[in-house]
């Protein structure tokens, strides 16, 4: 069984590849093709790295062999960089997705295509809980490119080129490592940096509602999307992945309970209108009841997000 993970050398891609190889969500693949700008860090003979961009036809010819069964498309220009470089975001997030879908024509049978979308496809005035059938009205370049790519995935599924599913991923927190270019990077930073003794900034009001999922649950849900029987999806192939609604204040309360007031006090509020304008336009809570019925999972609360990160940090 051959599978492909684009963006496979990134944080989520690496976790997903390790999970797949461990057989956490079904039979382990015999070959995992990782497409990214650098080689995969996963040391396993079953992993084959293809270096380059998903927008490069030559890369895709090497990455999508006829025996491909499942594709997880995670590669993207993130929200902060998308706002700064909209042409690049359109070329990679839309053009790269279109090129990857086109490459699927060479597959012996339509592969399951798991597209990593985002809650940023929603925008404008939003209800307290965004329903399943809420219209897409993104308020950022990133959200717009992801919404367009969702439609491309759905159209390719309708035409029988792929067996697609678009997973609207919540903000992932708490991420290890260095900050990335996402507008939501602070959601991890206000926990991760203080625990390392480093000051951190929260650029949005402390009562800002955020739809969040831990790295472990997000990885598990993406893997589950690759195994979900097509018949369960029926005609609706876009899924709002489960998350929990938290605020920066709640995350800081959890941080203080876990590590003490001195650690919490390393975080200072420093409003950034540019970041707030984007983040406050995202849903604070989403109706994910359909996803839960389909076997996707959710975290418990903000304390669980913080303690999970602390546990992983201690064991790394």
UniProtKB/TrEMBL annotation:
InterPro entries: DenD, Epimerase_deHydtase, NAD(P)-bd_dom_sf. The lineage of its organism: Bacteria, Pseudomonadati, Acidobacteriota, Vicinamibacteria, Vicinamibacterales. This is Cholesterol dehydrogenase. Coiled coil: none annotated. One of its GO terms (molecular function) is oxidoreductase activity. It holds the Pfam family Epimerase. It comes from the Bacteria. The keyword NADP applies. SUPFAM superfamilies: NAD(P)-binding Rossmann-fold domains (SSF51735). Keywords: Carbohydrate metabolism, NADP.
């Amino acid at each position: 069984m051959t599978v492909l993970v684009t963006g496979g050398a990134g944080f989520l891609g690496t976790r997903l590849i390790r999970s797949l190889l461990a057989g956490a969500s079904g039979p382990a693949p015999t070959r995992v093709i990782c497409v990214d700008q650098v080689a995969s860090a996963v040391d396993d003979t079953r992993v084959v790295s293809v270096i380059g961009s998903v927008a490069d036809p030559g890369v895709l010819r090497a990455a999508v062999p006829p025996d491909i069964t499942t594709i997880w498309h995670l590669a993207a220009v993130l929200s902060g960089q998308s706002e700064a470089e909209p042409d690049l975001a359109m070329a990679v997030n839309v053009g790269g997705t279109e090129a990857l879908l086109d490459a699927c024509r060479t597959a012996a049978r339509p592969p399951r295509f798991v597209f990593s979308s985002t809650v940023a496809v929603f925008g404008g005035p939003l209800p307290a809980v965004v329903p399943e059938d809420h219209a897409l009205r993104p308020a950022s370049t990133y959200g717009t490119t992801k919404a367009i790519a969702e439609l491309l995935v759905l159209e390719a599924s309708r035409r029988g080129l792929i067996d697609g599913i678009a997973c609207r991923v919540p903000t992932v927190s708490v991420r290890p490592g260095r900050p990335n270019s996402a507008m939501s990077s602070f959601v991890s930073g206000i926990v991760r940096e203080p625990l390392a003794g480093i000051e951190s900034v929260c650029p949005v009001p402390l009562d800002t509602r955020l739809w969040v999922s831990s790295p472990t649950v997000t990885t598990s849900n993406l893997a589950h999307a690759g195994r979900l029987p097509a018949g369960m999806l029926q005609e609706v192939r876009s899924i709002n992945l489960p998350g929990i609604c938290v605020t920066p204040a709640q995350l800081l309360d959890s941080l203080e309970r876990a590590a003490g007031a001195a650690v919490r006090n390393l975080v200072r509020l420093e409003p950034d209108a540019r970041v707030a304008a984007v983040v406050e336009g995202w849903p604070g809570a989403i109706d994910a009841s359909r996803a839960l019925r389909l076997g996707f999972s959710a975290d418990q609360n903000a304390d669980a997000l913080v303690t999970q990160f602390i546990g992983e940090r201690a064991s790394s």
